C-alpha cells in the first residue's frame, strides 16, 4: 500500500465532496477502500486523528471503532480542534451511552416525530442497518403497541433472543410484554409483537379488535410483488399474498409505519413503460419513499474470474490457476482465501449443487487439518440422529457448512452461528442466504447466475452480492464471480416494484379484489364481489368466518362449506373419530383424515399437495398424505425420515431432503391453511346443526397447532420457533416426564436447553 498516495486520493475525494462534485455515498466508498487498506498497516497517532476526522466527515464513526477488531489501539493521546470537532459530531449520533447510529440512519430516525403520522418506505443496501433503526425509532417515540414483521421464523427468533439476551436491548425487555405466538392469552400495558406475515394474519384473525397498534415495521416488503419472487416455493406458498395482506392490515388510519427492503427499484414517471401502481400505493396511504440504495456502508468489489491463469482481487488476495476447469478453480480460490485466514460464502443455483460442491471441497483435502473439537458435541448429535453418511455431517467435519431450505431448521441455525463465529471456513448456500439470514463473510464466490433454472434478476443478484462483507465487521466485501453471467444480472436494467392492488389493469385473483380500492377494480370484479355476497347470505356465513385464513378465497371457503354439508352420517362419524383421536393421542384416524382431505381436494391449487392426495397406498385406500401426516405426528422429523429410509429405499441425503420439503413447505404452509379452513367451516356447520356458538364445537384445532409449531404448549412453541432439537421441544411438551427426558439429552441438546431456558423464563417473567 502506498499510504501517501492512498491518503492523497481520499483527501481529493473529500474536497470534491465539499465542492459537491461527488455524492456522499461516493465518498463513503472511497473511505471504505482507505480503511480497508490501512487496517493491516501500523497506525500512528497522526493516522488515528486523520481516521477520526474521515469517519466524522462521512458520518460513519463506526468505521473508526471497527479498527479495534483488527488489533488496533484506538485511544487518542492528543486532541486537536479537528479531533474535538469529530467527537462533538459523533456525540450527536449517540442514542445512548452504548449505542449510536450513522448519519444516514439518523436522517431516518429524525423523520419520526411525535404528534404526526410517520409513514415511510425505505429501500437501502444490505449493510445499511435497517433493523437497528427500527429499535431506535421505538425507543424514541415510546410506542405502546408495536408489531415487527420479519420474513422467517429464524429472524423472528433471532430478534427475540436479542431482546432477551443482549444488554443493549434491556429497554424492550423491561418495558414491553414480548409476544411471538399468534395465540395471546393476556396483553401487557405495552406490547411488542414479533411475527412472520402469516403469523401476523393469524393473530389478526383472533385479535383484530382487541388491540390497536401504534407502530408497524415490515421487513423485506418487496415480497408484495410476485414478480420479485424468483423462488418457486415462495410463490407456491403465496408469500406475496401474505405480504400484501400484512401491509393492508398494518396501514390502519393512525398507525406509524416503516416498510423496508434491500435494493428495491422504482418506476420513473418519465419512462415510456411507467407503471404507476407503486406510486399510487404510496400516495393513497400517505407513505414517503426513502431511497438509500446507493449507500453501501460496506463497499463491494467485483472480480470476474474467467479463462486467465491468474487473477487479482486486491493487494491481499490473488489467484494462480493450474486448470481451466470451473470446479478446480473453485478449489484454488478457497485455498487462496484460506491462506489469508478468511472465510467465504459460495453461492450455488440449486440445493443439489451445494452438496456436490461440498463433496468436491471435502475430497480436495483443503481442510485436512481442520479442528472441529469446538463443535464436536454438535457433529456428534448429528451423527446420532442423522448418521455419518449424511453429506452435511461430513462437510461439518471439514469446516464446511451447507445451507439450503431442506436442511432441518435448527441445524441451519447452528451452521450459520458456527460460520459467523469463524468455526467454519466455507458456507455453501442457495438463495437462502438472502432469506432472513445474517452472515458475516468478507468473501462471496458466485458459481452460478441462476436460481434453479431461472436467470437471476438484477434485484436478486444485488441481494446475493450484498452478502459479501458485513457492517461493523468489514469495510469491503469481495464478490468473486467464477465463469458465469452474474455480472450481466448486476448490470441489467432494473425491474421496478409494483403493487397489483393499486393498478386498474393488473390481473387480480379473488383474494386481491377484497383488498383493492374501488378505484382500481373493474366491473367484473364488482360483479364477483356481489355474487359471492349473495352466496354468503344464502348460507348465512358470518363475515368474521370469511375473514379467517385470509389467503384462501371466499369462493373456496363456500365450496368447502357446501361439501361439508353434503357429507353423510358415516363420514361425519369418521370426522368425530378423528377429532377424538387427535385430542387423546395426537394422532390421526386414517378414515376421518381421508374424509377431510377429500372434502378439501377440489379447491387445492398446490401441485405437490394435489399429488400427495391423488396418490394412494398399495391398498388404494388412503392418500400418501394421510400416511405422511401419521408418521410425522408419531415420530416428528426423524420419524418421517426413517419412514422414507425403511419403506421407500431412499438414500440418507434423499430421505432428509424429501422429509424437509414435506415438513417445511407442504405441511406447514399448504396443509395447515387448508385444514384450518376445513376446521372453521366444519365448526360453523355443526354450530348451526346443534344451535350453539361455534366456540362450543370441538374441531381439529390441536392438529393445526401441532403442525404449525410442532408443539402444543406455549413454552414448547417458543422453543420450536427458536430452533431446537426435537428432544428439547418434547421436554416442554411433557413436563411431568421432564426429568426423564432431560436425562436422555446429549451434550449438544443440554447446551441448547440452557439457552432456551433463559429465553422461556425471561419471556414469561
From TrEMBL:
TM spans (from-to): none
Keyword Hydrolase: yes
Domain Helicase C-terminal span(s) in chain numbering: 332-512
SUPFAM superfamilies xref list: P-loop containing nucleoside triphosphate hydrolases
A Pfam family recorded for this sequence: Helicase_C
The entry's keywords: ATP-binding, Helicase, Hydrolase, Nucleotide-binding
Protein name, as recorded: Helicase-like protein
Organism of origin: Mucilaginibacter gynuensis
Organism lineage string: Bacteria, Pseudomonadati, Bacteroidota, Sphingobacteriia, Sphingobacteriales
